[in-house]
Amino acid sequence: MSRINFDHVEAQIVEVQYHEFPGTLMIVCCITLRNGFQVVGQAACADPRIFDEFIGRGLAYKDATNKIWMLEGYLLKEKLWVQEGNSPLTLSDYPN
Questions:
Q1: 96 found inside a domain
Q2: What are φ and ψ of residue 80, in 5° steps?
Q3: Is the pTM of this model over 0.90?
Q4: Is residue 51 part of a domain?
Q5: Is residue 59 part of a domain?
Q6: Number of folded domains in the chain?
Q7: What are 40-89's pLDDT values in tens digits?
Q8: Which site from 2, 5, 65, 68 is most exposed, i.e. has the minimal number of CB atoms within 10 Å?
Q9: From start to end of the chain, where are the E strands?
């Protein structure tokens, strides 16, 4: 695979949780990926007269999945880099 697509991103998701903070117009979406990593997205409304929880959940979900795209893109680039003959990154490459 040399391209990330929506189906691939969706396949990484094992759980989706939402939280609306009481007294606010903020909704947070926490997505757990199949490897256990969690990604958070958020949405907020400025005007309480037009607040819609369904729309807020959709926007928070989209914010979180956009982050998954970035992570999956990084993993794909690493895989392609290794296929070009470079050494894969290891934990020792990162500072303690």
A1: no
A2: -65, -35
A3: no
A4: yes
A5: yes
A6: 1
A7: 999 999 999 999 999 999 999 999 999 999 999 999 999 998 999 888 87
A8: 2
A9: 13-20, 26-33, 38-44
CB atoms within 10 A of CB 36: 7
Q: How far apart are CA 19 and CA 81, in angstroms?
A: 38
32 DSSP 8-state letter: E
* Whole-number Å distance between alpha carbons of 72 and 21: 29
Distance CA 54, CA 57 (A): 5
Pick from 7, 28, 9: nearest CA to 71: 9
Measured between alpha carbons, how far is 13 from 91 in angstroms, rounded to an integer?
A: 25
C-alpha–C-alpha distance, residues 83 and 77, integer Å: 10
Nearest residue to 5 via CA among 79, 96, 72: 72
Q: What is the pLDDT of residue 3?
A: 87
Could you tell me the CATH number of the domain that includes residue 13? 3.30.160.240
Give domain status of residue 1, yes or no.
no
Measure the CA–CA gap between 43 and 61, rounded to whole angstroms.
9
The span from the CA of 78 to the CA of 92, in Å, is: 16
